[in-house]
Every structure is written in structure tokens, then in C-alpha cells.
Amino acid sequence: MKLLNSSLAIALSATIALGQWSHDPANNLVVADGASDQAQPMIAPTADGGCYISWFDGIASGYDLRLQRLDADGVEQWAHGGVLVLNRSFSSTQAYGLDVDASGNALLTARDDSGSGVQISAALVAASGAVSWSTTLTSTSAFVAAPKIAGTSDGGAVVAWTQDSAVKVQRLDAAGATQWAQGITLTPSQGSYSVADLHDAGADVILSMVHQTGSMFWSPKRLVAQKFDSSGSQLWGPQPLSVFSTGSLQIGNYPPFTPDGSGGAVFSWYTTSPLQCFVQRVDGSGVKAFPENQSVSTNSARVRVDPSVTYDAASGSTYVFWTEQNSGQSQFGLSGQRFDGVGLRQWTDQGVTLIPVGAPEVRQVKAIASGDGAMVFWAHIPGFGNDTLEGAHVDSAGVFDVDPFEVSSTPSEKSRLAAALGGTGQALLAWSDRRSDGGDILAQSVNEDGSLGASVEVGSAYCFGSGCPCGNDDPSAGCANDTGSGASLEAAGSVSVTANDLVLRAVGLTPGPGLFFQGDNAVNSGAGSPFGDGLRCAGGGVVRLEVRFANETNGYQVETSVSIASRGGVRAGELKRYQYWYRDTGTSPCGSQFNLSSGYELVWQA
Fold first, then answer.
1. Could you give all domains of the chain from N- to C-terminal order, each with its CATH number?
2. Deepest in the core among 223, 330, 459, 501, taking most CB within 10 A?
């Protein structure tokens, strides 16, 4: 492997500095800042760590639909202001849809008045910024509204929209051609349906709808869902599945849901009379996994609204966070709850209080499953027009393991916060911000540790498990240990001697002690030399940095707690190598009872 030298490190640092994601909460990335107002952003992450951001732009004669693509560093891939997808004349906005297809192209759908009357249109925008196709899905004088779109794993897409009192569903192929003849019409036996949300489940899709159960304006409004396969067959029964059976959604509330990654979905909503939050998970076959009408808290003395639900497929945990209020709705806080796989509350029956109820408003709560827990974001509003955005990470025990931090610290009116999990594990946020005019689209990337901006590699990993002592190779880490795979060394923080905030982290370990150490040289030109069950990668002028212990509690990963710069005696401009030696007292592959991680090298700076 080619080693990192000083000139290369400087070049990489210069390249990273060109990235557009901001590290400063007072100066978030500006995606759209036309003379008029930009509103209602949506985010669709791409596999390369970037994303598409769409919005309605009021700069022309109406709210046009525009789109921008960002790479993993937040660099705009198209001209500033994005590309025009639909040229519309509407003087107000409404719900619309954004997703990514199986090839990484953007899919959009919205109401469109550029032709004859008001219709529903859909479009595909390629990664190059070209509008590959645009199609009008309706030809009607009926009322049409609030379309959603989902790209499916087979390269197609499904669009759903409200049409009078029914919901219409249509499938498109990769070229935008309709596939289901006249489409599918869902009409309730009583009342009306309206589209709430739509997501893919592989080649299938899951659609949620608000069912107004009667003809009267005040008739109860319930949430229902249906799953469709690629032929249009309804997989959850002849009638949509009722997600809950007690209470009513608030007028104008269309709760989103999140797929569970196994063909099912997780829903959360709040009801009126009383104002309380609930949760349900429906498995891939349409069976409710949680108790009916499962509440997030049994404390009836508090009001709970606007829940955000996220699902961790690895642990089977469902996390819900919401705005908590006093009974008079004059004070606000942030609370949360975790549910296990069968819907039992895990953070006591009352949930956890993360921000106590008080005078500043807490609004626009968004949650994203991340690591051992979830990232949660919210608007902090001490007074009208003085909103800031804040975030934190909550562990699986319901405790802040990353304390609240500023995401957007410039006080201004902020609306329509959108959040998504990026392709490299970061949170991607976008919102409409009135700090300058009627509204600009701002965006921010947030890492799991609470740092802002692109997650920058401070150095380079080297010396992976190739040519290991007893054939225990692992080309993605160090030589394989008792677990069947190897341990890796990572770094976070900066290479600044002055900042002195570098942290080394060893992952993929076995139970027991280990030692972080520093060396001047890359042994055997970076390929390493056999040592125990692993490869010695760092040598020459070796400095013992710190002994740490890996166990189940810390997930068999450990990180340094000492000052690396001070303990290692490093100076700016020096190239140093690092490695972790550890005991492997289980079924040691080569019988030596110890092993080493892969290596890591970096150039220290002032």
C-alpha cells in the first residue's frame, strides 16, 4: 500500500477544505437564496454520501419545483439555485414527493398547472442534472393533491395522490411509462381517503392514508395503510389496514412513517381529545407487532404532540421523540421513548425527559436511528422569529451521550425542517430560513458525535490483514481474531498539536486488555511483519500511549482518553504511525493469544 507522506497530507487537507458543508452553526450551507422565498425542502440521500434537496421556489410567477444535488462534502454538483423541474404558477404550496431510484436518479412528483388545468406530474432527474423524463399522470377536472413517489428496487417507481375523496396509485417503469392501465383507485365505503406517506419495501411499496371516517368535517380521522406488489396486488388484505382504532388525528395532520427494512413499517401519530402520541409497527405480512393504540407514555397530566419515529433494524428498537407540553400548552419540552420488538416501553412507562418543560418552545422534532441510539433534532424558540436548531444523541438507555449542541445558531424564523440518514451515517438536514428574506433553503450535515460538516479522515488506514501468520487474513481490517474477523484502528478529531483533540478508536476487538502505541516507521514498507496472530505495522521510536480494556459493555471497542499529542511527544510536520495490540484469549487463530489492529498514519500540524 502506498504510504501517506507530508506533501500528500497537505494536498488532501486542501481538497477537504473545498467541501461546502459548514463546520460553523452560524453559517450553514446555503442551497437556494433567490430574491423571493424558497420553501418546503425535502432531502433524499444518495448511496455515495451525498443527497438531493428539492424545494418550491417563488422567484418567478409562481412556486416552481427545483432540485439540487450535493456530493458527500456538500459541494453543489449543478449551478447554484439548482435545476428547474416543474414551472408552475401556484401562489401557495402543498405536499409533494422526492425519492431516489435504483440507479441513483432523483424522482419527483407534484401538482402541476403548466398544462391543461391542475394535474399530477412526475419527473426523473439524472445525476447530471438533466430532466430525463417528465410525465403527466392525470387528465381530469377533479381535485388532485399531495402526491408522493417511491423508487423501487427493480428500477421502477410508484406515485400516489389524492383525487377528490379517493386515492389513486400508479406504477411507472424506468422510462416513466405507466404500468397499471388506469391505475388503482382506493375509495372508502364511507368518508374519504387522503395520501399521507409512501415508501418502497424492495420491489413493493407501502402507502399510508388518512381516512376521514364520515362526511362531516369533524368526523374522526384515522390512519390506514396498504402494501402493493409490482403487479398492483394489495398485500395487506382487500381493504387498507387500520393502524389505530381509537381517537382522531388533528385536522391537516398527515403523519409520515418509516420502513423497517424487512417489508414492514413503523408509524407514530398524535390524536386530539386527548392530545397524546402513539406508535405501531406493522410487519411485512401486515400483522401489527405492537399492542393496539400503544401510547408513548402513561402520564396523562401532560400533552404530547408532533412525534418523530425512527427504527433501528439491528436491535429491533423503535425510538419516538416528541414535543411535551403542560396541560395548558403554554410550556414546552422534549421527551422520548424506546420500544422493543413487541412494542413494550423500555424507558419506563412515562418515557424520558430530555429537555424539561419550560417557556422556550420546542418544535419540529426529528429523529434518526444512529449507532447505539438515535440522533434527535429540534427547533428551540425563545421568542417569535428567534428560532435556532439544536441536536443531540441519545443512547439506548435514554441518556444524552452527546449533549445538546447548536446546529443552526443564527436566530431567525425556521420552518419545514427535513431530516434524513445519509449514506455514510451522517444526519442530513434542510430547512427554510428567514434570516435574510422571505425564506432561503439552508442545509447542514451532522455527524454522530455532534460535529458539523463532512466527516473528514484525519489520516489514512494502512496495513490490512494480508499475509497473516496462519492464513487468518482479513483484507478490510487487521488479521482475524477469535471473532473470525480483524480489528481496525480509526481516528477522530484533528491533527492539530495545539487543539490536542485527536482520539484513536480500536473496533472489532475481543474481551480483555490492549495497548495503543505510536511509531515512527511503517514496518515492511507498510505491509507489516508477522507478530503473534497479527501483523506489526508501526515501529521505530515506539511510544506506549495507553492501556484500555474491551468488553461487552463498550461494544468491544475502545478509544483513547489521554492526550495523544502530549503523550507521544509529537511536533507539527511529523508523520506518525499508530496501532493497537490486544489480548485474544479465546480461540486464538494461530495460538499466540494476542493480535493487532490494522495501522493508522497521519501528519501532525500546528
1. 255-411 (2.115.10.20), 460-603 (2.60.40)
2. 223
